[in-house]
Amino acid sequence: MHPSQSELLKLKNLGLASVNILHSIGIRTQDDLHRVGPAEAFASIRGRGINASRVLLYALQGALLDVHWNELDPDLKANLVTEAEQILARKDRA
Q1: 3 state SS of 22
Q2: How many CA atoms lie within 13 A of 48 on its CB side?
Q3: Transmembrane region positions (predicted)?
Q4: What is the C-alpha to C-alpha distance for residues 38 and 21, in angstroms, rounded to an integer?
Q5: d(Cα 31, Cα 39) in Å, to the nearest integer?
Q6: Is the entire prediction scored with pTM above 0.70?
Q7: Is residue 4 over pLDDT 80?
Q8: Alpha carbons 84 and 17: distance in angstroms, whole number
Q9: How many Å apart are CA 2 and CA 23, to the nearest integer?
Q10: What's the CA gap between 53 and 41, in Å, rounded?
Q11: Coil/strand/helix, residue 48
């Protein structure tokens, strides 16, 4: 197992499948995820044709906050969805 993979696996909400998806978009560390942000990472995942649900978006945010994704504030979840949709719309227009 690559050291960065084990780092991401230590984050709440992230399992091996999620970590492998993150690696496919170039996110290898917690710092990478923080720098990119959950909405941009989610948009990149969806942009690669990976069928990811909103739960992954919430899981990414929860990983950064060290909380279970289901405990995120509903307003935060709604803002994340809006941000991800805006990013995806911009990428579709490009």
Answers
A1: helix
A2: 13
A3: none
A4: 13
A5: 15
A6: yes
A7: no
A8: 20
A9: 11
A10: 13
A11: coil
Place of tokens 């405990």: 71
CATH assignment of 3-93, among 3.10.20.600, 3.90.360.10, 3.40.630.10, 1.10.150.20: 1.10.150.20
7: tokens are 């780092």
Angstrom distance (rounded) from CA 33 to CA 63: 9
With contact defined as beta carbons under 8 Å apart, do 54 and 85 qualify?
no
Alpha-carbon distance values, 56 to 1, 39, 82, 84 (Å): 22, 10, 15, 12
At 6, the pLDDT band (50, 70, 90 cuts) reads confident
Q: Residue 46's pLDDT is what?
A: 95
Q: Which residue has the tokens 């690669």?
A: 48
Residue 68 in contact with residue 12, Cβ under 8 Å? yes
